[in-house]
Amino acid sequence: MYQGAERDRKKYLELNEADGPVFKIKNDPRFTKLGKALSKSGIDELPQIVNILKGEMAFVGPRPLPLEEEGKIPEEYRLVRRQVLPGIVSPWVFIGYHSVPFKKWMESDLEYVKNKSLFLDLFYLLKGFLFFLKSPSVLWKEACFGQ
Q: 33, 96, 134, 143 - which has most CB atoms within 10 Å?
């Protein structure tokens, strides 16, 4: 995103495609071409490994939300989501990402927390890794052609 993108968020509230108290725009105009390609490929998540090493995040878990959005989600979801560390890889990414209704997203988080296991984490890590492997062509296409 360009510098000051969070400040400009209010300009784009009417473009919000997510239901519920979250803000998602599939083709967010605040992204630069390179930023969009990095986001689509998942490479933009690599710096989060620092947070994993610090013990503040996990590889798998509910996606962290901006504090403003976190405070708006129903308490029943917030309390369960906080039982585990937030993660880079989250189940809702694989069920539709931007197109998933808020309630289904939160239910997938609750289901993950309820059934958390080493096997489940390995399953989502493998899915995430496979996505990452297929994404270099997406990154190149986006960076060069802006598609």
A: 143
**pLDDT on residue 44:** 81
Please identify every stretch of the chain with a pLDDT value under 70, giving residue numbers as ranges.
Answer: 97-98, 135-147
Domain map of the chain by residue range? 7-145
Side chain identity at 101, as an amino acid letter?
P
CB 63 within 8 A of CB 92: yes
User: What residues contact 115, with CB distance under 8 A and at least 6 apart?
Assistant: none
Q: Say which residue the tokens 């309390």 belong to.
A: 79
Phi, psi (degrees; rounded to nearest 5) at 58: -125, 165
* Structure tokens given for 19: 């239901």
Q: What is the 3-state secondary structure (H, E, C) of the chain?
A: CCCCCCHHHHHHHHHCCCCCCCCCCCCCCCCCHHHHHHHHHCHHHHHHHHHHHCCCCEEECCCCCCHHHHCCCCHHHHHHHCCCCCEEECHHHHCCHHHCCHHHHHHHHHHHHHHCCHHHHHHHHHHHHHHHHHCHHHHHHHHHHCC
pLDDT digits (tens, 9 = 90+) for 4-32: 778 778 888 888 888 888 888 878 888 88
